[in-house]
Design brief:
Oligomer: single chain
Strand content: under 5%
Helix content: over 70%
Shape: globular
Radius of gyration: 23 Å
Order of helices and strands: HHHHHHHHHHHHH
Length: 262
Amino acid sequence: MSQQARLFKQNIYIIKTFKNEVTMKMSANPVQACLDTLVSPEMAFNTVKDKKGWSWLPFVLMISTTIAVFMYYFNAVDFTWLRESMLNALASSGDMSDEEIKATGEFYKKDTMMWSTVIGGSVGTIVINLIYAAYLNITTKVSAQSEYKFTDWFAFTWWVALPAFVSMLLAALVVFFSSDGAISLQDLQPTSLNSLIFSVEASNAWFNFLEGITLFTFWGMAVATIGLNAWLKIDISKALKIAIAPFVVIYSLWAVYIAFIA
């Protein structure tokens, strides 16, 4: 064998070895897996597919942060200002009578609103993840012959939720840097399409729709896509379709409702 041939074979061996080392790189522990999900999701999902028990950490982070941030918010906000601004928004919408607005105002008490928001946010997150896990369990069995179980996909959803955890940390910073306590619930989402682009008033029919879509929504979709690609070894375009289909359907129906019915 010529010297050039030997050098060529050696180079090929070095390249393959390096590629394998990169491919085999894994997250070392649950904390690193959380960080990797945000900055290097493929590495994280290649690890956690065999470490289902690690999903306790993103679950605890998401639920505890949701509770802590909303409790912090309601203890920092000027509640009199918040109550009046919410009642004024209802009045300007024209959808409720004065009597209905007055009755609603009776519900707008600090402790009542705080605990309903804390419980609603926490339980709502769990319910949404359960629904998304059920969707992934059914869809991937049909379209990708997945052998993962519902519980596996439920664990998967908590890793996908980590961008929302970052969103909650950002909300806490918004509250922290507020000087006068005049912070609406919408202010907690400074990356929503409404905050960044449209700036429609709360009385506008599109307000909740535009507030519900944030940059973190797209980040979460990207993480889900990469996770599906890593777990199922399917084409990235197919993974993208599976990941975003529920969001596309929900937001499309919502937009149609607003445009033609609301």
